[in-house]
Amino acid sequence: MYSQQQFLVRQWDFPRNSISMNEPVRITFLGGLGDIGRNCAAIETQNQILLLDCGQLFPDDLMPGAHSVLPDFSYLEKRREKIIGCIATHGHEDHIGALRYALEICEFPIFGSEFTLGMVRHRLAEANMLDKTELTKVEDGEIISIGDFRCEFLPVTHSTPKGLISAIHTPQGLILHSSDFKLDHSPVDGRVTDLDRIADLSEDPGIRLLLCDSTNAELEGSSISESDVGTGLLGIFREFPQNRIITTCFSSHIHRIQQIINIARDEGRKVATLGFSLERNVSLARSLNILKVPDDALIDVAEIEHYPKSQVCVISTGSQGEPRSSLCRSAQSSGKWLRIDEDDVIIFSSRTIPGNEKRIGRLVNNLLGLGAKVINDENLKTHTSGHGQRQELFELHKAAQPEWFVPVHGELRHLMAHKQLAVSNGMESGKALVATDGDQIVMKDNELSLNREECKGQYIFSQGSIIEKGHGLFKERNILGKEGCVIASVTVSTNDKCLKGPPVVISKGWLNEDLSRFYEDEVKEQLSKDLTLYLRHKDNLTHDRLTQKVRRITGSVVNDRTKRRPMIVPIVEIIS
What we know:
With 576 residues, the protein is α/β, with parallel strands linked by helices. It folds into 3 domains: 283 residues, 4-Layer Sandwich (Metallo-beta-lactamase, Chain A); 154 residues, Rossmann fold; 92 residues, Ubiquitin-like (UB roll) (Roll), CATH 3.10.20.580. It contains 15 helices and 27 strands. The strands form 5 sheets. Strands 8-7-6-4-3-2-20-21 form an 8-stranded mixed sheet. A 7-stranded mixed sheet has the order 1-9-10-11-12-13-19. A 5-stranded parallel sheet has the order 15-16-14-17-18, with helices on both faces. Helix 14 crosses helix 15. The two termini are 56 Å apart.
């Protein structure tokens, strides 16, 4: 059972400039630098480690069977006794989704806003891990100490509520972590990114190191305001007053959900939510008074058929074409609660995450095939990014005036573009360090240095209850998925130097049933013929040699006769 008494957590009550600059501080990036996902950094003094986020990466098509991709926890496993806590900057899965796995290494408290901790609580409850931690709420502007680290939390605008910028005072000066951020001067909740406080910190005590979101570092200009998305959505609602409107967005985008509900109410529509994660997040946000919705604005999704189409708006999960999502099932006419009808209007109020293009395309085609009208044109302002573009990045750099800078949260091209932006605006090139997963920044009194591959930074894969490393497994799965397999089994007597019984050949996913039987018989015949000759004329018949021979005979027949390359699985049993 976790006990928070293990750790010191209190208000900081002495002057900001009292930190002595002696002890080195190390920042090891366990994920998030090279990918959009699995964000996790370990900020380390001699005796303590403070984690900054602990997220997962969603696997792509090259990782079949993986449920999630985790940070490289090998670094933490060797230092588990030093971990004193984790700051969860906001509630997106790429920042909190791996916490349950980290808590299996050791128990530690988690710090974040009330909404973020609500998201964390849901995830840990699903894994029966709530007894492994203490969830400690922090407020905008609050300053607390977590062991050796004095931490100040500033409000930041993003695409999920109550995100936090972390100003972490260390024995080597102030580290400012931007979190995922944008500069929105008219956010739905009125909570703007606190550039004024960042500017104050740049003056006193000064920002030694800036870690800043790089997601949109290649995009010129600024992102549009979330409030402008509301204007775009309102125009679509008014264009289709008689049609049922179904919107889909990220389930954690509470501000988008708030705008859709407000517009629907103003246009005389009841709102139904569809999808477990959406319903759970809406409930959490309402309980914290972040999402303001009167009870009479909502109806159960089971009731939507009782209302005229002109009086219904459905908000659904499935904006990324997830196969098991509510919208995807409805598009395949297998949804329990929502049947897509002709002339329904489907609004995609989201961006396409790279890698999801094909499955979103299939979803759109399925919806169109059912007669629905689909709107996913970014020119209509149905979505805006939660990440700042180049002008917004420039403004944050201008406020922070850091001595050193490391771009974070992005693919390598984003990190490089962010460094270029910083240098073009006056930063010394040598003080903008591009790190990747596994690298470590070392902060000393007179310098910062970059140690490459302090840990491997490798992908760790979660598959059910099993954690695995390496890509070899997925190479095999991709072959199985694309080509199938052929299993060839023989029993050999090494004393008599002959086969004991006929070979057995079974295939799966290689050819259709009729063809596979025909070619399986050919493989059996060739195995019998070639192995009989081989056994008769060879001495020193080891298991490895026999296995290799069976593989070669089987593979030769399969490839020559079908021009296919399934996985060949040889099984050799040796008897005396």
